[in-house]
């Protein structure tokens, strides 16, 4: 049987975005967050995400400005880095330290997870960066603790850890903390690398121009 | 402020899995699918996944047998390949053709998406493989069409396209088709690379031994 389905990538994007705009409550979000919410919803198939979106300041403006000035994107998980569309950010360094040499030893030394230890490895490059947590609650907690204890500040934080142990708590802590860093998160258990990468992809000029 | 949170990876897994077992309706699933459902839920934070899980035959047994015999894992998206834990499958070839040379031209020639064209590139290696679709409905539709038109059969199909245009339809088509290939899918809009990679990671002996 030959199936009848849309095969044109542009048409697929247009139809997807139209469905999302029809079903999702985007009106509750600031204008700058709407295209980001659309892309996040597109990545997970769930139109009720806006009700869980939480933010401080203008993470989109801050991240776009930082990227335009050459900021690095720091990711906690290789899946997040893989999900960022490289041609959207042709001159941006996208870094993930989860497979860095010495990481396992550092994690043992710090008494924490490899994901949190990988965040510790960002200390020299964190200032002015765009930090993206798409997997580990411990990574987001460690990032908040580093900044609260006087460490360098990224330009913006996109915090989307997922799951059952510390995910909701770490995202609540991000919003509650007064870090002086614009941030975007998704309260509750949902999150993950696809949603995190989608939020970053939505920052690109290509995306904003509809040039997918 | 120093936060109080679980930092021990083994304890995090144990607590996560205990929460999932307490909240998710796993009893409706065959025994072989329960550890897979747990890992999929762990990856997305949503305990209601079992109600949308659909399958034909024994995809877990078929895939594990194929992997033990040296089967390749074929992924439609780089994020899926990135999410598969390499040390769980030390001697397995994990392949994704989305960045293959000539793919864009092939997509134009076939009048379809790059994701579907990448599946076409699997034709010589598809027989006996473990095929994983974690992103594109067009990729799953193309895979079904290839097999229905007499093409080679993988050992098992894990079909988790996500989104608003063709995702639910492609997954319904997978279950409705009588391909003679064991398969696992998630009906509706939800899916994506994290859930797909989680299903594959659950196939490993390491996972089954609880050796995370």
TrEMBL record, chains A, B:
The record, for SUPFAM superfamilies, names: Precorrin-8X methylmutase CbiC/CobH (SSF63965)
Cite the Cobalamin biosynthesis precorrin-8X methylmutase CobH/CbiC domain residue spans from the record: 12-204
PANTHER family assigned? COBALT-PRECORRIN-8 METHYLMUTASE
Alphabetic keyword roster: Cobalamin biosynthesis, Isomerase
Q: In which pathway does it act?
A: Cofactor biosynthesis; adenosylcobalamin biosynthesis
Instruction: Name the top EC class.
Output: isomerase
What family is this? Belongs to the CobH/CbiC family.
Q: Where are the transmembrane segments?
A: none
GO MF terms here are: precorrin-8X methylmutase activity
Question: What EC number(s) does the entry state?
Answer: 5.4.99.61
Its name, as the record gives it, is Precorrin-8X methylmutase
């Amino acid at each position: 049987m030959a199936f009848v389905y849309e095969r044109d990538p542009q048409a697929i994007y247009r139809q997807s975005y139209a469905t999302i705009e029809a079903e999702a409550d985007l009106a509750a979000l600031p204008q700058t967050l709407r295209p980001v919410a659309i892309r996040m919803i597109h990545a997970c198939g769930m139109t009720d995400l806006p009700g869980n979106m939480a933010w401080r300041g203008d993470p989109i403006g801050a991240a776009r400005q930082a990227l335009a000035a050459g900021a690095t994107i720091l990711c906690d998980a290789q899946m997040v880095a893989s999900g960022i569309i490289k041609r959207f950010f042709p001159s941006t360094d996208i870094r993930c330290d989860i497979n860095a040499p010495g990481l396992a030893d550092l994690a043992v030394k710090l008494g924490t997870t490899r994901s949190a230890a990988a965040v510790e490895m960002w200390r020299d490059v964190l200032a002015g960066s765009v930090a993206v947590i798409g997997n580990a609650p411990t990574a987001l907690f460690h990032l908040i603790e580093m900044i609260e204890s006087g460490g360098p500040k990224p330009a913006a934080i996109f915090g989307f850890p997922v799951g059952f142990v510390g995910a909701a708590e770490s995202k609540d802590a991000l919003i509650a903390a007064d870090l002086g860093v614009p941030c975007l998160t998704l309260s509750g258990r949902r999150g993950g690398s696809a949603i995190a990468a989608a939020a970053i992809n939505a920052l690109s000029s290509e995306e904003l121009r509809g040039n997918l």
